[in-house]
Amino acid sequence: MSFYIAYGSNLNLEQMALRCPGAKPAGAGALSGYRLAFRGAARGYYLTLLPKPEGSVPIGIWEVTPENLEKLEEYEGYPEFYYKTELDVSFKDSSTGESRRERALIYIMRESYGPGAPTEEYYQGCLEGFRSFGLDTAGLEEAYREVTD
């Protein structure tokens, strides 16, 4: 099993059950030094992370199989749309309540894509995911306002 960092639609439990059968929520935490933003192109606008020194983004951590990782690469449009990297991340383990630190995979959209509004369905799916992981939605709502106001 590997660990995967989710900060958008892949926080949604129902969607992940369909996309990555066998993936298990492992916990929740935050990534320092980033903010959420909607970016994309004609194929659609989706969440990504942008650097922000004083920022913090709530995240969910999944335990995933190699097969799940293949599905995630396809879903994320890797390597053209999103690139992947690994980060050391601290999070609260959902089964023990203990703090733990693991190396985890994350997908971040390539910087060449500009801002734009996501579909309402995508945004609502992200909101549901944030809530299911018990994450604060303020940063998500702010990112949405930036592209819809």
Automatic annotation (TrEMBL):
Keywords: Lyase. It comes from the Bacteria. InterPro entries: AIG2-like_dom, G-Glutamylcylcotransferase, GGCT-like, GGCT-like_sf. Residues 5-111 form the Gamma-glutamylcyclotransferase AIG2-like domain. Substrate binds at residues 4-9. One of its GO terms (molecular function) is gamma-glutamylcyclotransferase activity. CDD domains: GGCT_like. The active site is at residue 76. PANTHER family: GAMMA-GLUTAMYLCYCLOTRANSFERASE. This is Gamma-glutamylcyclotransferase. It comes from Acutalibacter muris.
